[in-house]
Amino acid sequence: xxxxVDLASYAxxxxxxxxxxxxxxxxxxxxxxxxxxxxxxxxxxxxxxxxRALRELRQELAAVFATAAxxxxxxxxxxLNLLLAAHPVRPQISAHDGQPWHLHLTEGDRPAAExxxxxxxxxxxxVTELGVDRLGxxxxxxxxxxxxxxxxxxxxxxxxxxxxxxxxxxxxRARRREVGxxx
Length: 183
What we know:
two-stranded antiparallel sheet, Znf_CGNR, mainly alpha, Zinc finger CGNR domain-containing protein, ABATE, Jann2411-like fold, 58% helix
């Protein structure tokens, strides 16, 4: 059996944090975010000191996605490298919640630092395996959410089906208005 760390799920932590509407100014909101990300164990240990760190991480990760979406590969990678240096990974073998032994990218640190190390390492692995162009910002106006394009043909342009549908309907209506205006 091949060893496995699901780095794609770690990269999703970055997306969840950047896309969160919660201002992360209360422990309750941050705990909900961590629980939604499947990080309930971190949520239990969260302190007010973690809130600022999570807000700063969100800004830094959003900047990585923004530079990647503008096709500034080198800058996106430089930003990721700075984040990797700031949030080093310390792998640990763990068993919890009835799961067999598995690998976590970091343990025993502050909750925000654990979240950061996992999210940044996940993004770095995705970028090195699939490319910087797989980090995107939703093209639906005015959405601005981010996504990971793991499609086989690099075709993802929207954060969700809802945004894709909304953009397609808007484009259709614009074409209809244009045709009606020329008649």
